[in-house]
Amino acid sequence: MYTQALNTREAIGPVEDPEHEARFQARVDGEEKVEPNDWMPEAYRRLLVRQISQHAHSEIVGMLPEGNWITRAPTLRRKAALLAKVQDEGGHGLYLYAAAETLDVSREELVEQLLAGKAKYSSIFNYPTLTWADIGAVGWLVDGAAIMNQIPLCRCSYGPYARAMIRICKEESFHQRQGYEIILTLSRGTAEQKAMAQGALNRWWWPSLMMFGPSDKESQHSDKSMRWKVKRFSNDELRQKFVDATVPQGLYLGLTFPDPELRFDEASGHWAFGAIDFDELRQVIAGNGPCNHERMKARRKAHDDGAWVREAALAYAEKRRSRRDTARAA
Ligand code: FAQ
To answer: Which of 31, 97, 151, 246 would give a disulfide with 107, using CB separation of 3.0 to 4.6 Å?
Structure first.
């Protein structure tokens, strides 16, 4: 929807220019949205393409761990909800690729980078979903963490990204609730079901905290991103907000968190938590997580299997265009 009548980078003018940059920063500081045909620093454009495309890839790869359970959902109601959720994630990927395309990069190029193993996607989707309770944990914790990170992105300075995030966040909040409801049901079930919920929390807690990225000290892009109001909160700030919101939800369920250092700190009013294993995060991002290989293999197969659909859609569009041209000429 955004890809028609956009200026190319050449048409917009010089990419580095102190005068333009000062005016651009003033607009951003004044909370004006930046739109696709506006002048923008090249580094701002690159930062957005990097983040939006990684985000889009995450949504698409993120369909796999849950898609794995569609045929094994315990009831028809659960199956219908999970099917809708996984479909929503695919839709989120498409809105985000469309937003990235407004920045003079094509979706084909971005998908190619993912399939070639050159593009990042969220570390969290390289962990396996071992039991049905993991589907609850993904909704409660992974979508919960995603929302915490994405609500501020609805106010991001770049218009198309901010607008895509508004719709995405509405759907993610439904996803979080369906996940929490699965965990709630299991926690109130038999001893075996409660143990399954506890096992899922044990497995997904630390990887969910890693979703927020490296610590603020290690984060490479935060300074620029905050200055340009793409990010509104730092990685550590959002991680703390997530812990503060989620720990009471887990305690309400009668579950325990796999962190002996977790305690409420009266002085700060926040939940203090133990050290995150950032080496594990680095390893997963580098391609050495438990499921990286499997995820990329599944994506490549899906892309190859879908080639005929893309070809058919293009042939149909071409046929419609030529019929329309013939009718106009008559
Ligand atoms: N995994 O300097 P920073 C979802 C990379 S959607 C992998 O701090 P930044 C919905 C980072 O890209 C989940 N890589 O970077 C769903 C950078 O690498 P680069 C995705 C990570 O951008 C639910 C380097 O480390 N959400 O879950 C990770 O300022 C259920 C240095 O990091 C988004 O993408 C990581 N966890 O902050 C779907 C939200 N963390 O590019 C299905 C938008 C960091 O230099 C089922 N993105 N890296 O090679 C963001 O908010 C930011 O990009 C951060 C990272 C916060 C992720």
So the answer is: 97
